[in-house]
Design goal:
single chain, alpha/beta, Rossmann fold, 2 domains, 6-stranded mixed beta sheet, 19% strand, HypD_1
Length: 347
């Protein structure tokens, strides 16, 4: 079918209501940027899931970063959006006024030069992300060992996709199909979600990030649901292969192992993260046991939004107290966050 015919099909769809969840922050941003929702029938609903790495990072992790940044001769290096994520009382950026030493970098590898040029300073990299970025942190550790740099550590908040999706489905998430993240599948392979599809009898469509790529994947997912198909279909074959990236997977599995980690608004989920293996424990800055902080803004509905149980506009803080200049929850901080993209669309 031509793209025009596919769009017409999606616009004119009048079957049972279909709820599709994208579990990739880049998909969330792209769907908003390209106005994909405006191309769909009101009987096809797109729901943003827990795919924004900054958004799912618990406040206890931010609190630990702040503690580290206040230690003598210590600098926390991080990507820019994590600087503004609220901890239990304040963000890392706000803590700089209290003496916290935090520096924005563009790549984990940037701290290799910093650590080499400043041997008396201990550098801690805030290692957040999913399967896509975990191999980069593995490479950082590998290079630190090769260069004999003992003043580099990482604080991990690395997540894996399958177990959180299983958590959602076991907790009565009303989801009919998933747009699988193309970046993750480029590392893991297109079959990464196959066991989930089989266990929960639900379809997955691996999608790219362009407007036509998203529309085609959504169409494919709708057709799978209509025909009662399960399994995983790859609509991003130019980048995603069935076996994934063997080199990146080897790096990930060499330095990290599955572990139980906390997700903002969801608590601890067994086997849903990656932690450094014991033989590399000297590079860990205290990642184990970082649970969700008990002190929360109970008006903020970020946790429910991440689970697809609420929309940003359902939150009483949205566009009132909470906005990109004054984020009350992590979902409003990152450009991949559901609340941020909803605010930009509203604006």
């Amino acid at each position: 079918m031509e793209i025009k015919e596919i769009i017409e099909y999606l616009q004119n769809y009048q079957g049972p209501v279909i709820r599709l969840m994208e579990v990739c922050g880049s998909h969330t941003a792209a769907i908003s940027k390209f106005g994909i929702r405006d191309l769909l029938s009101d009987r096809i609903e797109l729901i943003s899931g827990p795919g924004c790495p900054v958004c799912v990072t618990p406040s206890a992790y931010v609190d630990r970063l702040i503690e580290l940044a206040k230690e003598p001769n210590t600098c926390v290096a991080t990507f820019g959006d994590l600087l503004r994520v609220p901890g239990s009382s304040k963000s890392l950026s706000e803590s700089k006024a209290d003496g916290a030493n935090a520096q924005m970098v563009y790549s984990p590898m940037d701290i290799l030069k910093l650590a080499k040029d400043n041997p008396m300073t201990n550098y801690v990299f805030a290692a957040v992300g999913f399967e896509t970025t975990a191999p980069l942190y593995a490479l950082l550790i590998e290079e630190a060992m090769k260069q004999n740099l003992s003043n580099i550590r990482i604080l991990t908040a690395l997540k894996s996709m399958p177990n959180v999706i299983a958590y959602l489905l076991r907790n009565e998430a009303q989801i009919d199909g998933f747009l699988a993240p193309g970046h993750v599948c480029a590392i893991t392979g297109a079959d990464y979600f196959g066991k989930l599809a089989e266990e929960f009898h639900i379809p997955f469509a691996v999608s790219g990030f362009g407007d036509e790529e998203l529309v085609v994947a959504i169409y494919g997912l709708v057709r799978m649901i209509e025909q009662k198909e399960t399994g995983v279909k790859n609509f991003y074959p130019s980048v995603v292969e069935s076996g994934g990236n063997a080199v990146a997977l080897d790096k990930l599995n060499t330095y990290f192992e599955p572990c139980t980690v906390a997700w903002r608004g969801m608590g601890e989920i067994e086997g849903s993260g990656f932690c450094l293996r014991k033989e590399y424990a000297q590079f860990d800055a205290g990642s184990i046991g970082l649970k969700e902080d008990k002190k929360k803004n109970h008006a903020c509905r970020c946790g429910e939004i991440l689970m697809g149980k609420a929309k940003p506009t359902d939150c009483p803080l949205f566009a009132r107290v909470c906005n990109p200049s004054n984020p009350q929850g992590a979902c409003m901080v990152s450009y991949e966050g559901s609340c941020f993209t909803a605010f930009q669309t509203k604006a």
